[in-house]
Design brief:
alpha/beta, single chain, metal ion binding, disulfide bond, Rossmann fold, about 500 residues, 22 strands, Lipoxygenase-1, 11 helices
Length: about 500
């Protein structure tokens, strides 16, 4: 076990920490030139690689794997730049949209998620899909892979320029989709080929890129439209925080706050050790769970029909989850993922997802009004919503303020809001069930705490219908079974006097 731990620790440190001992004569030089791809320097601002310079194109040998609805997914056609016969026999259709998928660190063109995404794209509409295989340059050490992204980008840009010249495609036809380091490759391509139609950054890599100048990382000027999905933006600590926190697109989506995705095991060294007996793939899957979630959210959005991943403008995710940002004003809430370019919204947007596929859920805003005469008490309110089409999971409202972490208790006349995500659409709301559970304390031995509720409002995020439950001043004693409230008033007005 000790040897396994040492090996794992070495693996992680080699991948994401600086690797001064691995410097060669090549990394000590300040620049290298690779023919028509140009010259590459490790001087500022490209001093984010611990001195490493890109490996040669002949070493990386990026491959461009072309797929279309007419091609065999298991036998893609490999495009070769400056080979007209190769292009004429490829099946490439210059009049169609072109999607280019660029994987990230330690990945190659055979990675499963890229092929699943390709299949979903082709199912969506007729298009050309190209997967860039740069597996010979995407591996350890991480700083070398970071350096290699610039040569890979130069190769991609050269291929786009070749296609524009050879068959008359235009830069606006191209939509580049990159994950992790692949997102920054997309950004570099956009700096070389101006006027790209769109870049989608899937959790752009944070190590060696956060807080760097815009020419070093993906940013909003790299294409006509740049959308970014952030899913692993905790502080980087070798085993977590692989994605950027800072916004870097025209529109930046932060599902679940852009960190600690639901359904992912929290990345701690204790959990790493507990996953070792399951094998390296289990450890890798755990460490990359939040980082990779951006891939699966985007892929789900391509052909998602029953539900759309709507983002909401908000000051913070904490404000979002307590229901302060339910509306998008006069503009429609933008959809995260494939359809993001169809919306005019710009800036930071928050949303919540479920913990397993399908990740898209149905939003409900629940507002609870506490009674006017109750005494302050501390604990949690547990609620469920029943509609004509189903029952929600149980959700809670805590007396502890989630932003300040202070427990000021539930107080008389106070209004509390919460955002609920339900896997199923509930239909017309019929009933709300509530239960109070006070926090345990020494005083709990002497009496049972209680809260009173005077009004509950449920707003349907899909239809914006508002259901009002006027319940007088109903007392909920701690530990009492769930109490159901019926007779919702489907109205925009308030409760009648005395209710």
């Amino acid at each position: 076990m000790v040897s396994v731990l040492l090996a794992l620790g070495s693996y992680l440190l080699l991948g994401f920490c600086t690797a001064s001992s691995l410097r060669s004569d090549r990394t000590k030089r300040s620049s290298l030139c690779y023919g028509d791809l140009g010259c590459f320097s490790n001087d500022y601002p490209f001093n984010n690689t611990d001195g490493a310079l890109p490996l040669s194109p002949s070493h990386i040998r990026p491959a461009f794997l072309l797929f279309s609805e007419r091609s065999n997914p298991s036998a893609p056609f490999q495009l070769v730049r400056n080979d007209r016969h190769n292009l004429w026999t490829s099946g490439f259709e210059s009049s169609l949209p072109i999607k280019i998928i660029i994987p990230g660190f330690t990945q190659n063109g055979n990675v499963t998620w890229a092929h699943v995404m390709m299949s979903e794209l082709i199912r969506k509409e007729r298009m050309n899909v190209i997967i860039v295989d740069w597996g010979n340059g995407s591996g350890f050490p991480y700083t070398q892979a970071v350096a290699n992204t610039r040569v890979v980008a130069a190769e991609v840009a050269a291929m786009i320029s070749y296609l524009n010249t050879a068959v008359g495609t235009t830069s606006t036809q191209y939509h580049l989709i990159g994950h992790s380091l692949g997102a920054h490759v997309c950004g570099y391509v956009g700096q070389i080929v101006r006027g790209l139609g769109r870049i989608t950054g899937l959790d752009p890599a944070e190590p060696n890129f956060e807080d760097t100048p815009t020419e070093v990382r993906l940013d909003a000027t790299d294409a006509n439209f740049v959308d970014v999905i952030h899913t692993d933006g905790t502080e980087y600590d070798t085993i977590s925080g692989y994605g950027m926190k800072a916004p870097c697109g025209d529109i930046d989506f932060y599902p679940n706050g852009g960190r600690n995705q639901p359904g992912c095991t929290h990345e701690t060294w204790t959990n790493v050790v507990s996953h070792l007996e399951l094998g390296p793939h289990a450890v890798g899957g755990m460490l990359a769970c939040s980082h990779d979630r951006s891939i699966y959210l985007f892929t789900e959005s391509i052909n998602g029909r029953s539900c759309t991943l709507k983002g909401h403008p908000c000051n913070s995710y904490e404000d979002f989850v307590v229901g302060r940002c339910f509306s998008c004003g006069n503009q429609p809430c933008p959809s995260m993922g494939y359809s993001a370019a169809s919306f005019r919204a710009r800036g930071k947007f928050y949303l919540a997802t479920l913990d397993s596929p399908p990740y898209c859920g149905n939003y409900y805003q629940v507002t609870v009004q506490f009674g006017p005469t109750m005494s302050t008490d501390h604990g949690e309110l547990r609620l469920r919503i029943l509609g004509t089409s189903g029952l929600s999971q149980t959700f809670t409202i805590q007396s502890t303020n989630q932003q300040t972490r202070r427990d000021d208790g539930f107080r008389q006349g106070q209004e509390r809001k919460v955002m609920v995500v339900s896997r199923n659409y509930l239909g017309n709301i019929l009933n709300v069930q509530a239960q109070f559970q006070e926090h345990s304390s020494i005083l709990s031995y002497f009496w049972t705490g209680a809260v009173s509720l005077s009004r509950i409002t449920v707003t349907d995020g899909k239809t914006e219908a508002r259901y009002l439950f006027c319940i007088g001043e109903t007392v909920l004693h701690s530990g009492q079974p769930l109490v159901g409230f019926n007779h919702a008033v489907h109205t925009t007005a308030g409760c009648p006097p005395g209710q």
